[in-house]
Structure formats: structure tokens, C-alpha cells
Design brief:
Oxidized Rhodanese, domain 1; three-stranded parallel beta sheet; 2 domains; 215 residues; five-stranded mixed β-barrel; 9 strands
């Protein structure tokens, strides 16, 4: 009986040793790492951040600030925050709205630099081709919200502390450097969201904006 027990233990021991080796083999074999997807390329913005206060992004449409036009290459440049987009166009088929000027042959030249525009486009071979350019129309301001030149002169004469006002030049920095109204601080319209901390904290504070006209 004792001998038979010893004999029966040999296969069991051999099997256990084989299983142990199999487990060790599995532990020492490195597991295959799952393939990682390549990072997606960052998408270019189609609308300036400040435009998001009133609009939502739309396919085939860009919203930003007009930078310039080159009729020789039939292309326009639009600034969307920190990115410039170059969009080609066909002079014969391009539609233009809210641009009234004397330049009938090259009407895009009547759009001032920095003007807010919306550009509808089609895409071909990775290039954008404008079909419609819409300049932002003049803002309709209520009569009680408009301050006369004489009233501004009185405030400037008192100064910000006595007059209790903040005068803001909303033009591009280069224009403000050429000359501005005394006591005014320059907060360009396109950079408003980045410089909002310059505004007075009091909700009842008088804030007077000016630019190159009612736009």
C-alpha cells in the first residue's frame, strides 16, 4: 500500500511542476501592447471667439476680421483670432453684401481692415473658394445711448475721476497710436474678450465707446 502511494505521487508531482513552468512562462512573456491611435490634427477655428456671443459655427462659413484683398491673385485674407485664412475667389461670380462704395470694379477694396465679415465658401483640392462675402452692417444704436461730441468734451474736461466715466477707443492699436481722445484707453474690438479686465467693476459705471463711426 505504501509503495503504491509513492508511485501515484510521481505523476502528480510531474504534472504540478509542468503547470508551474507553464505559469512562469506566461508571466515572463511580455503582453502585446494595444496599438495607439495617432493624435488627431487640431482643427482650425472657423469663427472668431467674439462672434460666438451672437452666432454659432456653420459648415462652409467663416467669421472673422477682414485683413485685405489681392485682386491680382483673386484672394482675400481673413483673421480668425490668431489664425489667418486665405480664401480664393472668382471675381466674376463672387457675391458681396453690405459694401457700398465708389469702387465698382474692385468692391472688396472698400472693406476696411479689421471689419467683421462672414465668408461663405466651397472647398476644392484642399483650398477654399469664396462664394459670398458679407460685411457686418452698421449697428443701430438707440438715440438715448448715443453721446454727442459736446458731452464727451465736458467729461474729458472733468477727467475720469470727477466725471466718473471710462472712455474706450475701440479702434485697432495702430489707429489709436496715431491719435486718440485724451483719457481714452485702447481696447480693440477684436481683443475685447482678452482685455475685459480693464473695464470698471461697478455696474453703474459710465462707459463710453468710440471708433471711426457707428459700426
Amino acid at each position: 500500500m505504501l509503495g503504491s502511494k509513492n508511485i501515484s505521487l510521481v505523476p502528480a508531482f510531474t504534472l504540478a511542476a509542468s503547470l508551474a513552468m507553464a505559469v512562469i512562462g506566461c508571466q515572463t512573456t511580455p503582453a502585446a501592447k494595444p496599438a495607439t491611435a495617432a493624435p488627431a490634427a487640431p482643427t482650425r477655428p472657423t469663427m472668431a471667439k467674439i462672434c460666438g456671443n451672437c452666432h454659432t459655427p456653420q459648415a462652409g462659413s467663416l467669421r472673422g476680421n477682414f485683413e485685405g484683398v489681392a485682386y491680382k491673385t483673386q484672394s482675400i485674407q481673413v483673421k480668425i483670432d490668431d489664425i489667418s485664412e486665405v480664401i480664393r475667389f472668382d471675381k466674376a461670380t463672387l457675391k458681396i453684401e453690405n459694401v457700398k462704395g465708389e469702387n465698382t470694379e474692385e468692391p472688396l477694396r472698400d472693406i476696411s481692415k479689421g471689419k467683421e465679415v462672414r465668408v461663405e465658401y466651397t472647398e476644392k483640392d484642399g483650398k477654399k473658394f469664396a462664394t459670398l462675402v458679407v460685411a457686418k452692417p452698421p449697428i443701430k444704436v438707440a438715440a438715448d445711448k448715443i453721446m454727442s461730441t459736446e458731452d464727451v468734451e465736458k467729461l474729458v474736461g472733468l477727467g475720469p475721476e470727477k466725471g466718473k466715466y471710462t472712455l474706450i477707443d475701440a479702434r485697432p492699436p495702430l489707429k489709436a497710436l496715431e491719435g486718440t481722445i485724451p483719457t481714452a484707453i485702447n481696447i480693440p474690438f477684436v481683443a475685447f474678450d482678452k482685455m475685459v479686465d480693464k473695464l470698471p467693476q461697478a455696474k453703474d459705471a459710465l462707459i463710453v465707446y468710440f471708433c471711426q463711426g457707428v459700426t
